[in-house]
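[audit] Reproducing an earlier prediction to check determinism. Same input, same settings, fresh worker. If the tokens differ from the archived copy the diff job will pick it up downstream; this log only records the rerun itself.
[audit] input (73 residues):
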Amino acid sequence: MASLPSAPRIIFEAIGAGKRPEAVLTWGISDKHTWVPVWFSRTDGMPNRPLPLDADYKPKPMMQVIQDFCAEQ
């Protein structure tokens, strides 16, 4: 994995330190149709963008973290 720390990277490193999962599951794939902003708002007023693809289905940095994690043995 790249050396740049990020919340998703730290989470996946912690998961990988134990028994590696067989799959990575997200609650949706694109921010275009996420339910998160309906139920959770950010304190800084910025929109929630919780998923690996943006509203135009383009990969966000989280997608690379997931791909790197899945590529590791």
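[audit] rerun output stored. Observation attached for the diff report: The mean pLDDT is 86.
[audit] end
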